[in-house]
Amino acid sequence: MIAIGNDHSAVEMKREIIALLGDMGLEYTDYGATEETSSDYPVFAARVARAVAKGTCELGIVICGTGIGVSIAANKVQGVRCALCAEPFSALMARQHNNANVLALGARTLGMGLARMTARTFLEASFEGGRHARRVEQMARLEKGENIE
Ligand code: RB5
C-alpha cells in the first residue's frame, strides 16, 4: 500500500502519480487535497508520514509546489526518511542507500514525465543494506537524540 498526499498546488500531479500506481498495479491511499483552494502542506505530509511510520503503508509520496515544505514536514515524523528528488538517479539512491520511505516531488518544478519516471524509479528500487544499514541506523539514533560519534 502506497500513501500519497499533496497540497492544492499538486492536485494534477497527484492524479498523474495515481495513474502511475495503477499502471504498476500498486494500491494506494490518498491522504491529499482534492481541491485547488489554498491548503496547508504540513497537514497532508503528516498524514502520509504517520501512515508510513505506523506501517499502514510501506512507502509514501508527498507533493507540494517545490516538494520542500512536504519533505521538511514529513521528516519531523519519527521513523520517516523523506527524500526530495527531482530526477530518477536521486530517487534510486534514496531507496538503495538511504532507505528513504517517503518520496517528495515538486509539482511546480517538475514536468509530469520526469515526476512519473522519478516516482517509478523510487517505487521499483530497494534498500541495499550492508554498509548503508549502519548509516541509516545512525540516523535513527540521531532522531532519538543519541550521540553517534
Ligand atoms: C504553496 O503555495 C507552496 O508554498 C507549497 O506548495 C510548497 O511549495 C511549500 O514548500
Describe this structure in words.
With 149 residues, the protein is of the alpha/beta class. The chain has a single domain (2-143), classed as Sugar-phosphate isomerase, RpiB/LacA/LacB (Ribose 5-phosphate Isomerase B, Chain: A). Helices cover 46% and strands 15% of the residues. It is built from six helices and five strands, in the order E-H-E-H-E-H-E-H-E-H-H. The chain has helices at 11-23, 41-54, 68-74, 88-96, 112-124, 131-143; strands at residues 2-6, 28-30, 59-64, 82-84, 102-106. Strand 1 (2-6), helix 1 (11-23) and strand 2 form a beta-alpha-beta unit. Helix 4 (88-96) packs parallel to helix 5. The longest helix is centred in the N-terminal third of the chain and has 14 residues, at 41-54. The protein is globular, with a radius of gyration of 14 Å. The model has no long low-confidence stretch (mean pLDDT 98). The structure holds D-ribose. D-ribose (RB5) binds at residues 7, 9, 41, 64-66, 68-69. D-ribose is lined by residues 7, 9, 41, 64-66, 68-69.
Question: How do the helices and strands line up, and which of them pair or pack?
Answer:
Elements: E1 2-6, H1 11-23, E2 28-30, H2 41-54, E3 59-64, H3 68-74, E4 82-84, H4 88-96, E5 102-106, H5 112-124, H6 131-143
Parallel strand pairs: 1-2, 1-3, 3-5, 4-5
Bound molecules: D-ribose (RB5).
